[in-house]
Amino acid sequence: MSQLPAPAALRLCSTADREAARLCVTFDLIPSATDYDLRVDGVTLLVGFTPGSFVGGFDPNTDHSFEARARGIGFQDSDFSTPLVAVTRPPTPPVPSRLPIDLQGWGVTLAWEVPDGWNGAAGATTRLLRDDGAGPAVIFESRGLTGRFVDTHYPRTGLKAYSLQVFVISATMGGPNVSARGPSIDVRGAINALVPAGVDAVAPGETLVPLNRSLRQIQRAGARLLGLPTR
Hints:
The chain is mainly beta and 231 residues long. The protein folds into two domains: 11-87, Immunoglobulins (Immunoglobulin-like), CATH 2.60.40; 97-226, Sandwich (Immunoglobulin-like). 5% of the residues lie in helices and 36% in strands. Strands 10, 11, 13, 14 and 15 form a five-stranded antiparallel beta sheet that branches. A four-stranded antiparallel beta sheet has the order 4-3-6-7, with no helix packed on it. It has a three-stranded antiparallel beta sheet with strand order 1-2-5, with no helix packed on it.
């Protein structure tokens, strides 16, 4: 009885099919094979595995190995294939929140707290993304899973969508392992507030205008920044 060849080219189905708790695995089909088995992490055997299916139950940001075996009527089962080692994503972060501290119209204050307790959380970096209508772009990165950011770069009108991503450096991937983008919060800039040209976004620990000033003091400070008369 001849032996079937082992499945070749084990791979993830696509980049989009790599999630925090499951991975989609596929491989090249073997002529004369009628069935396949998939061995996960050298222990769990999934009998009758269909290429292009998800394997789940994993923790975020963890490495897993996959080996496939072909079976066919009238043939000896193949050997297990060369292992595929793949990494699940970090957990998808929650939506950031908008704080009721908008510097009286001079900025939008975003805050976030991503749950920890998952593998690699201690070395994680959080990204804040803003979508102005042309797609999300990173506007701030902070080490850790909590943070706050004041975005002063928005027009008086117009909707912005803010969301988060988390990444850690993966030795297996040889670079950053990036989570899926979390849900977004839609924010419209404060009404009747102009943003002075050339004013940069405010990083944590800094303030554009001291928050303990009165509304009138802040309005006067803003008028001076714009070169308008004050009274």
